[in-house]
Amino acid sequence: MPVKPLPSIDAIEPYKGGESRLPGFDNPIKLASNENPLGCSPLAKQAYLKAAEKLALYPDGSAAALREAIASRYGVDAGRIICGAGSDEIFQLLGRAYLAPGDEIIQSQYGFLVYRLVAQQSGATTLSAPDKDFVVDIDAILSLVSPRTKIVFIANPNNPTGTYIPFEDLKRLHAGLPEAVLLVIDAAYAEYVDANAYSSGLELAAEHDNVLMTRTFSKIHGLAALRLGWAFGPAAAITALNKVRGPFNVSAPALAAGVAALADQAFAVESAAFNARQLKRVSEALVGLGYRVTPSVCNFLLLHCAPGGAGALDQHLRRHGLIVRAMGAYGLPDALRISIGAPTDNDALIAAVTAFKAAA
């Protein structure tokens, strides 16, 4: 009899990232994974290449230089930072350190799929609180809290809706949680938000023993291929995560590129400004074609189709060499998530959707 995995593992459906290949197209336009169309900072690329000259050496397992760079950039204690192979790995570490069979996590209705996978891997249960018009509902989340609740995951802004909750609501959520519940704020898209009411949650993580904030270098910094993320939180939580992470979990080239990316704030500012312009243009064009688009503060948008229409539009876009993200796995079968691309890619998207509407 073959060796079998744990029953909780058998039930898992692996996460599927955005596609990058399309039959019949050598270079399809990929608008499925919320990548930075401007690439990455030239300084980050140079640092990566320089670090690649020493591939025979192990990286610094403590990620000291990157943690110090993050601490300097955000004015926090480097000792309360942990780095990971993307923020995804940090979510996995949270599952190992805090979740056991019978425990529960809470997320919003359209929370990032990885949160549920983390719970499943530990034998924990996921409860999803209904949104209000695709915005996280604080009261709905608090109503689900029970003695079994161990972690509340909040993506702010949220993927795939592109919406956010103000800092006042985030503070109200934290105030309503028991001290024994860990609030994890996933701020992967924080750098794209230009709103006075918004906060990444850094302040809450600095002041409380049950708040942890995660960030990524994959989006605004354009380092998705390197798998680099970090978290800031209470010293006890960071210690626990360090106990369950691998000893050399982030590569040396990734660490070097991360330090350089943080030093090039001009690139991050340029990326955010570019995204704001193109997001507005694409959103207005799609709304002008008769589609409903959830207002987004991220580098993607959620487009809603008539019942049964998302699949037809998706196939039409594929025939024109465009890859977007179907949302059935999120319980949104009539929606497509579309990343903001380079101007010519956005032109191609608008033209293809216009042709689809004209043929309908």
Q: Can you describe what's shown?
A:
- This protein is α/β, with parallel strands linked by helices.
- The chain has helices spanning 7-10, 42-51, 64-74, 86-98, 113-121, 138-143, 167-175, 202-207, 235-244, 252-263, 265-288, 309-319, 343-359, and strands at 29-30, 81-84, 104-108, 125-129, 149-155, 182-186, 211-216, 229-232, 292-294, 300-304, 322-323, 325-326, 335-339.
- The protein has a seven-stranded mixed beta sheet with strand order 2-8-7-6-5-3-4, with helices on both faces. Strands 9-10-13-12 form a four-stranded antiparallel beta sheet, covered by helices on one side. A two-stranded parallel ribbon has the order 1-11.
- Helix 7 (167-175) links the parallel strand 5 and strand 6.
- It is globular, with a radius of gyration of 20 Å.
- The chain starts with 6 loop residues before the first helix and ends with a helix.
